[in-house]
Specification:
This protein has 299 residues and is mainly β. It is built from no helices and 26 strands.
């Protein structure tokens, strides 16, 4: 159900069956109740079979309590995760799983969601929403969390509404050229620019840090990691090719996301960009019936 990828620094896993603690390796499988831990400089990605993923930041401890295919027909998965301490960023694909994350302070139900969360001893649980929605319950109250909102340092007996805040900063993204023509059967060069800025004033936020990049399109080539300079800015080269001819599901929509890859930057919102494409409409054939004098268009 889940495997380990993109390791950086010290990452260890404790196997539930044997109790042994091992150094994690890329491609290793993470089973139910296995524990994954990152060191002071450690980061790692957990990839689920349905494409959903979780990125653990430094000094984090997490276990998967349940991971199974709940419905074979529509490929829906049921995932239950325990965040014991530390912080993570998650991207759960919409409609593909029933997912929840439990911390010592609260339980979070996931619904097609991109978010960050942190569990800190003595401070509580902090959750920052980027996309989709979350349902949070801490035993006293419950609420729905929407994009741009944050629940800050929630503890078990807190009234959640008193902990609601709004994101102040975010990575802003631009792409050159602004429109990509995918009817050209060649590799095209692009430049992605990232700038950390204040959401209200758009003023530059001067903060350096590593940035993780991801896209949902297999023919978009960009580095998985880049670094903001001291002014919170970076340019990233990228290349794109048209979709495979056999890909009948491609609808022309491509999303690129960027987030700061460290627990030190949990208060900064991530950026997302929808690539403006053209030339992706399916080609049509004309069927001409000369005897009837009719023309039919088919894909």
């Amino acid at each position: 159900m889940a495997s380990i990828h993109e390791l950086d620094g010290l990452v260890q896993m404790t196997l539930q069956q044997t109790g042994r603690k091992l150094v994690a390796r890329s491609g290793s499988f993470l089973g139910e109740e296995d524990i994954l831990e990152t060191g002071k400089d450690g980061r790692v990605t957990i990839l689920f079979r349905n494409g959903s993923k979780i990125r653990l930041f430094e000094e984090t401890r997490l276990s998967i309590q349940k991971a199974l295919e709940a419905n074979i027909v529509n490929r829906a998965f049921e995932i239950e995760i325990q965040l014991h301490k530390g912080s993570l960023r998650a991207n759960f694909l919409p409609g593909l799983q029933i997912a929840s994350i439990q911390t010592p302070q609260a339980k979070i139900k996931v619904d097609g969601t991109v978010f960050r969360m942190e569990e800190k001893l003595g401070s509580g649980t902090t959750i920052s929403m980027t996309e989709g929605k979350l349902f949070v319950n801490n035993g006293v109250s419950s609420m729905e969390l929407l994009p741009g909102q944050r629940l800050s340092e929630v503890k078990y007996l807190d009234e959640l509404s008193t902990k609601l805040e709004y994101m102040n900063t975010q990575i802003f993204m631009n792409l050159t050229p602004e429109v990509v023509d995918l009817s050209k059967f060649t590799t095209q060069k692009m430049t992605l620019t990232l700038q950390l800025a204040d959401l209200k004033s758009s003023k530059v936020v001067r903060a350096a840090g590593k940035v993780y990049l991801e896209s949902d399109f297999y023919n978009l080539r960009l580095p998985s990691m880049t670094t903001l300079d001291s002014s919170g800015f970076v340019r990233v080269p990228a290349r794109i090719r048209p979709p495979r001819v056999s890909d009948k599901d491609f609808d022309g929509q491509i999303v690129v996301r960027a987030f700061l890859d460290s627990a030190r930057h949990n208060l900064h919102g991530e950026g997302s960009l929808v690539v403006n494409t053209q030339g992706t409409q399916p080609k049509r054939k004309l069927l001409i019936d000369a005897s009837q004098g009719t023309v039919h268009s088919v894909e």
